[in-house]
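Quarterly update, task 2.4: magnesium ion-bound model.
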Amino acid sequence: MTVDLSYSENNVTPKDQNSLKESVIMPEPQLRSIAVEKAYRKGDLKIPVLRGIDQKVFEGDFLSIIGQSGSGKSTLLHLFGLLDHPDIGEIHLNGERIDDLPAKTRDQLRNHVFGFIFQFYHLLPELSLLENVMVPMMIRHSMWDFWKQKRKFKDQAKEIISKVGLDHRFTHKPSELSGGEMQRAAIARALVLKPKILLADEPTGNLDSKTGGEIIELLNTLNDLDKLTVVMVTHDEAIAKEAKNQVRIVEGRIERLATSKVGVA
Ligand SMILES: Nc1ncnc2c1ncn2[C@@H]1O[C@H](COP(=O)(O)OP(=O)(O)O)[C@@H](O)[C@H]1O
Ligand SMILES: [Mg+2]
């Protein structure tokens, strides 16, 4: 497999990077993909989707990744969040390679480091908003542990629900919430275990532009006030522009678009 030399950082191995760090003081990216490639197979046909993605995400950044439908945005987000493996290349967290860890370690890391939100919310219809937000706590703890600490967990869930502006909706079922409220609920659920990085896959894709704008405003507030790192993929240019930094996926590679106060690759 050939490596595209125009991406000079592709060719810096983690070892080189460490020696480089010793001589030059530079911030370590919190999350990074190095020369990541991914293809899907359809019968005998191999369809390349990502063809060498180098992207750094620094702590406290809000990075949007724009791309047309089918350009590989969800694929890339899944690789960042350890939901899938790259064919070639590496994913690093705080300078350590994480894509090649044993499955159990990857699962633990994923649950501790990443929060996910999606276009279609994926709330459980039978549960109230409060119960939906508490689901990750139930999954993380044993039954006994959960019941012992239920009051504390409930308070923590209520606090995060208030933060996303839904404190008047604790007992509502998802069917009794609007689209924007369901996405807020999904954000609360994603944040209840205090992840370091929020991965957002078309979070406004099912919302009108005003409501979508409010969701991005909420993500920006969480990014500003709580220093939550956000990586969002979207096909919507207007939404993407609301992030601090923007890049585009074109033909399986990253094109950089804008930079503001936080450095980005
Ligand atoms: N599990 C899969 N098996 C086969 N092809 C897939 C799979 N997932 C995605 N693809 C294909 O890979 C390409 C990129 O998909 P995706 O990452 O979902 O794009 P985006 O999120 O930008 O719309 C698309 O052509 C899609 O059909
Ligand atoms: Mg997608």
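Highlight for this quarter: The mean pLDDT is 90.
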